[in-house]
Amino acid sequence: MPTFQIPDGTKVRMSGKELVFGETIFSPRESNHILADTEALRQRMEEDGYLIIRNFHNREDIMKARKEIIDHMESQGLLAAGSTLEDAIIGDRKRSMRFKDSLVKTWPDFLNIVDGKNTMDFFGRFLGGPALSLDHKWLRAIRTGGNAGMHCDIVYMGAGTKNLYTMWTALGDITLDMGPLALCMGSHKLERLRNTYGASDAHDDLIQGSFSNDPYDVIETLGIEWAATPFQAGDVVIFGMYFMHASLENTTNRFRISSDTRYQLATEATDQRHMGEDPDVIPKADLSERKSIEEYRAEWGLVKENS
What we know:
By secondary structure, the chain is α+β, with helices and mostly antiparallel strands. It is built from eight helices and 13 strands. The chain has helices at 38-48, 59-75, 101-104, 108-114, 117-127, 191-194, 215-222, 293-300; strands spanning 11-14, 17-20, 25-26, 50-53, 97-99, 131-133, 138-142, 165-170, 181-185, 225-228, 236-240, 245-247, 256-265. A hairpin with a 2-residue loop joins strand 1 and strand 2 (17-20). Helix 2 packs across helix 4.
């Protein structure tokens, strides 16, 4: 039984569309009860494509990292007057923020979360050898109305090993209406998705990395179900490169703050575009040489029947 079993009929939003729990979106499975069993975790990953682990990080450590983030956002005039560390109320500028790696590297408490002993020991055990994390850290504060489109991470970082895992970390309490991670259940098992969209590269091939921005398009085209849950500070979701995901829409006046970091065996090839002193800057091919995702999907046969 999930820690947060969302009542049927609960409504959430994604990309301007309404999803209803028990009909078009469901509560995902959690994995805390098998956390000490490495082989069971691997089997669960193969079966589900993701692991939800509650309280993976100590809440006190998370709040130290959150303070580094909030202090910077306050210095940039992004927070409302009187906003607290916990609520992070959006100010008048009303924009999302993606924090540069050159800045993030100066925050020891955040690095203690994503590169610290707790995280690296877990991935060393799960992967079966010494692990490394990609230098590029994706730390975001998402405003009202913001959400991520439906995508697989492989299109952004597929130039190294495919045995690479994302850890999405809640850097604060994230309710359903704040736009938490949304999961495309069973998407990692879709060979037609893996061999078409999953074989593309967002830096070289695609104008846009997202497969779609419409949750119903994904349901009807791929035959999957959506899942989502609220998170508390320190909860994580871990998933592989071919697992499609997105986020719900933030309909509150608070920033949703979370990070995406990637882990692999240190002995395997890394995508060098996401390594080094300044991995934020990735050269792109001439956009005029690229097709839209709609054109590619038509070629791949990954469109709704009535499209």
